[in-house]
# Entry
Amino acid sequence: MEVVAESVAGIDVHQKQITVSILVGLANAKPKKISKRFETITCRLKDCGEWLKQRHVEQVLMESTCQYWRPVWQILEPFGFKMILCNPRIVKNIPGKKTDQKDSEWLSELARYGLVSASFVPPKSIQALRESTRLRKKITQSMTATKNEVHNLLQRSNIKLTTYISDIFNGTGLKLLKLLIDGEFITLQAITKCRHTRIKASVEQLFVAMDGILPRNDRRLLGLNMELLADFRRVLAELDAQIDEQIMEFNDLYLRLQDIPGISQRIAQIIIAEVGSDVSPFPDAHHLASWAGLCPGNYESAGIKHGAHILHGNVYLKSPW
# Structure
């Protein structure tokens, strides 16, 4: 195999420490191995950068291990190394007893011979936007789970508001839920004050729908869930304002994406956050689709082609909501 770098380092990353192995040597000679461990606190990672710099390391290869790789990357990148991040799924460890040192040595050998393609690591501005949009997705999912809990609570109390009101978390539905939370005596007059004129259900139908058994504990749980939803809405409003500010840097691309049928403002934000504004890391559209996990695999054996499922890919692009 052809040597692509004469001085490389492989880093096995963990939460508390990293194991670094360096391979140094000419292409036509057996390389010298040097290994050392560093704690993952900032000062020790800077010491690691200085140690690699003193040994004239050209490339640094590490696996994308949870979030542990990110501070290591951020601290070592300013030292000027060619940083390579690889997917653990496609990096096969050598057989035998597994140790941190063997893992780091294996990574350094892969880097020396150029056997691993680099994973896509966007610039810091895109990373910041990505963190914001991903947090918004998590909060939205939490809101959905909380709403489902409210629905379950009402059903077990035999309160059938959802039979007549499609969205009980706004307008009339929200006012009727407040009556239940406050423990007020449900009357036709009270429902009339809450009912919006556009609601098709009559006051009598809503009165019958609210004729359930809501224990004190469930009433308290209902109130807590509604408070949680209010907090989620407040945080989402702040987060949306932050995302709008971050997306201004890519305003031209942001507007052009929305010209595509089916691409809303939110989806355009997610596309920029996940793919970035520069698609040069992807040779063509096929590579981008493969990275996103939107195209099936290609599996052939003994001249027979077998069907293959799409890969995990980027779940935020495949399901932006």
